[in-house]
Amino acid sequence: MHFHEKPNTYVTNVEIKVSDLQSSLAYYQEVIGFKVLQQESHKATLTADGKTALLTIVQPETVEEKTTFTTGLYHFALLLPSRRDLANVISHFHKNGVYFGASDHDVSEALYLSDPDKNGIEIYADRPEDKWTWHSNQVHMVTEPLNIQSILAEGNDTWSGLPAGTVMGHIHLSVSNLMEAEEFYTKGLGFDIVTRYGTQALFISTGRYHHHIGLNTWYSENAPKLGEHQVGLKTFSLRLDNEQQVATMKENLRAIGAPVTDIAEGFQTEDPAGNKILLKF
Fold first, then answer.
1. d(CA 66, CA 230)
2. Is 18 within 8 Å of 119 (Cβ atoms)?
3. Residue 241 in contact with residue 9, Cβ under 8 Å?
4. Does residue 1 carry a pLDDT above 80?
5. Claim: this prediction has a pTM higher than 0.85
6. Which region holds residue 262: left if phi is over 0, alpha if psi is between -120 and 50, else beta?
7. Of 139, 146, 149, 150, the residue nearest 124 (C-alpha)
8. H or E segment and range at residue 250
9. I need a labelling partner for 249 at 20 to 30 A (CA). Which of 78, 102, 238, 256 fits?
10. Domains in the chain and their CATH numbers?
11. Strand, helix or coil for residue 87
């Protein structure tokens, strides 16, 4: 989990808009295994360890369904501490009839599903980093069938929600123009490209993680921004290392014409696809 500690820049919290707070709360507690950290009339903050906010769900006063082709959230990804934890999640899903997809990415083993508003979710466990294959500065990743029986063999068939060591492993975004997104996230925010998939997707990270952020145009090339009242991504938060990094990042963002607005403990910006980012240290 050192990839999700300073001095790396990593995702800490994702905030999404939902159509019905209560039904979403039931889903995220009963199916995904979150605990409620804080709840208001139209907003709830969710946690795995009882103290760290990982996901915030908000029900806007006016709610609109997300149209098929917009920018925004492709999925957020919850990183579990171990393969055994992944096995226990799979067992829980099987027992409760929860449909999910599954892939082996070589660096990780992952499950995929969607919440009631079709917000994408990944739940995964990393393979040990010494098993990852690097070609210069590019990490080898694949999408192959997942050996679920091999994972289940490591489980102990106990599930009491997300384990306390769960973190927000990464976020994957739909963008409208990959070249613009690449400039924003590399020149503006200082991420390194670690995997490129032709002209339609790339993965970026700090500290040689396989990815803290994914970017793609698979269903969103030249697409409009997600509407203010549409369900989907509202904001996501990145943890920065220190005040000097904040100052440098602001300067770099302004140099490429990106917006910068000061907020408590940091600042806010927005990528070219309209995805809003809170940067805090």
1. 5
2. yes
3. yes
4. no
5. yes
6. beta
7. 146
8. helix 243-255
9. 78
10. 2-280 (3.10.180.10)
11. helix
